[in-house]
Amino acid sequence: MVRPESRVIAIFCLILAVALDPALPWWRGALYLLYLAGLIRLFQAPLLRVCKRTLLVLPFLLVVLVFAAWSAASPERLFLLVQKALLSAAALAVLGVGTDFPSLLKGLHRLGLPSMLVMMLSFMYRYLDLLLGEAKRMEIARNQRYFGGGYLRQLRVLGNMIGSLFLRTYERGERIYQAMILRGYSAEAKPETVTYGLVDKIAVFSALGVLVFVVGTEHLWRLWS
Asked: What pLDDT was estimated at residue 225?
């Protein structure tokens, strides 16, 4: 099984290689796709879920393309932008689908992410359903008390709901934190000793190899031309 930190390094190197690629010819695009297929196999990520997560970037990509076309960008640059965005989104989808969030946080902490930030992200993930449930109950209460009105009144009600949700979230967070402190909670994570196997080395060094290959071939091509 590949460790989460090894997965993060592999995906980061792949995205960096895609971002640094100035032209992205078809053979390097095929290399990226082949490497992504290997990561999907190595991370045991379902292909259908990876494709669905990748397609989530399309609305944002459409907005970027509209602004790029408005600035009179060439069709080649627009096509290059689409390629890089889809490849990067697919790489992040492989990481998100193939790795559960708590394990990913542990891997990021072993890579040097501050303990306080890891704690905040962990709490956000843990209590997100609670926050959504609170927002849903407020929406139901608003619909039960709503008797029509213009758009300005609706915006006012929505603003009051957001403010009330923020205050409730803050107060509940304070109560939870005080309860955890009274039970001896410490924000400092305990050190964990892990061992890295062959699959971790394959994932990391293959990603570094792809990055070095892309940068090296591009540099040699510029020297040759």
From this structure: 57
Predicted confidence at residue 206, as pLDDT, reads 85
DSSP 114: -
Separation CA 135–CA 182 (nearest Å): 29
For position 93, what pLDDT does the model report? Answer: 92
CB-CB contact of 198 with 126 (8 Å): no
Closest CA to 8 of 85, 84, 89, 108: 108
H-helix or E-strand spanning residue 222: helix 198-224
pTM as predicted: 0.75
Q: How confident is the model at residue 190 (pLDDT cuts 50, 70, 90)?
A: low
The answer to whether the beta carbons of residues 14 and 32 sit under 8 Å apart is: yes
DSSP string, 66-97: HHHHHTT--HHHHHHHHHHHHHHHHHHHHHHH
Please, which pLDDT band fits residue 94 given cuts at 50, 70 and 90?
very high
- With a CB cutoff of 8 Å and minimum separation 6, the contacts of 63 are none
pLDDT over 70 at 149, yes or no: no
Please, are residues 43 and 82 in contact by the beta-carbon 8 Å criterion? no
Look up residue 27 and give its two tokens: 């053979």
> For residue 111, which amino acid is it?
L
Are residues 72 and 29 in contact, defined by beta-carbon separation less than 8 angstroms?
no
What is the SS3 assignment for 140? helix
